[in-house]
Amino acid sequence: MSIHNKISAADIERVYNPIDKAGGLPNAAYVDQDVFAFERDNLMANTWAGLLFASELPENGYALPIDFMGLPLLAIRDREGQLSIFHNVCSHRGMILVREAGPVKNLLRCPYHSWSYTLDGELKSTPHIGGVGQNSAEGFSCIGKGLKPVRSAEWMGIVFVNLSGEAESFDDFIEPLDARWAKFAGAGALNKLSVASDHSQMQLEIKANWKLAIENYCEAYHLPWVHPELNSYSPLDQHENLHVNDYMTGQATHNYTLSEVAGTTLPKFGAWPQDKQAYGEYISLYPNLMLGVQVDHAFAIILQPIAPNHTIEKLQIAYVDDDAISDQYQGCRDATLAAWKTVFTEDIFAVEGMQKGRHSPGFQGGVFSPVLDTPSHDFHKWVAKAYQSGIESKA
Ligand code: FES
Ligand SMILES: [Fe+2]
Prior knowledge:
Blueprint: H1 9-16, H2 28-31, H3 33-44, E1 49-53, E2 62-68, E3 71-77, E4 83-87, E5 102-103, E6 108-109, E7 116-117, E8 123-125, E9 149-155, E10 158-162, H4 170-185, E11 201-206, H5 210-218, H6 223-226, H7 228-233, E12 239-245, E13 248-253, H8 258-262, E14 280-285, E15 289-294, E16 297-307, E17 310-319, H9 330-357, H10 374-392
Antiparallel strand pairs: 1-10, 2-3, 2-5, 3-4, 4-9, 6-7, 7-8, 9-10, 11-17, 12-13, 13-14, 14-15, 15-16, 16-17
Helix pairs in contact: 1-10, 3-10, 5-10
The structure holds FE2/S2 (inorganic) cluster and fe (ii) ion.
FE2/S2 (inorganic) cluster binds next to loops.
């Protein structure tokens, strides 16, 4: 797919300039449906994108349909607990197979002509395919006609998908962040976090393009004005920009004291360095994840883009261990979620305001603070690179 008539080579060039001369992505990147479709099939599809939290499938034998930028996908947890992702479409006539999340006893049955699939995605039964009462047909085999799998992986409770199937291995993709945070949380700790059934999740709906949420999350510049309370316990001058690699940027704070502010005494990561108890990192993992880690919890926000101007933010807080999700700490979890809810809700007017600004011919990408906007500029460069193939091919 080409987006050359939406984004020009000059638009891309402007982004690639050194930050003091660079401009941001043009308005079309935020409002145009073709660019949105291109992003799904290229920018998102060619890497590992966050799809959902594993906790959204609460029991073994469970299926959950999920829309990924207009693409119908299906998450299945089989009876052994194994989670897989498939295209949510019946092999017969292309009916959406699962329309509502819920437990599955035996087979997934298509509501149209009742073809049924195992939880491993295999086509199992095809009633009357050979005529009334004939459940098989000459020359027809169920083999190879199962649900089409999507490459997936799980880390920190997040299920990632690689739609193209051609990205690097997930281990290679996540290693820079996994290794970085292992120095704080301990080796392997991020895959053993505990998610409580209460005060662990929330969802926000924003009338803005998903990229604006990432750009806003990357920078601390807006803290004093948008987050006065957060700024009081984690002020701007205590933040620094982070550039982990091409697809991970963000900020660190040296003054994380939420537990004091919220009066929480949550269990802490045992491995967290003693001299860095007030250190926290907030990293955007491109394309669509906003992650944070501090001494007593980690969180992840999955951005689910619905339309160019509509995004769902799904947040999950994960705690250090099972003790931290016991009743004893319910108040602490409540305070932690409430604090983050305040922060992320405060961001909405800014992100939605930027979206509105993308309809102005008086704005074509804007400029960056050469000091405080470096992570946002890094993100723009990454997006511009992903756009490049769609601009060069005019097909
Ligand atoms: S479309 Fe599913 S059984 Fe016909
Ligand atoms: Fe913010």
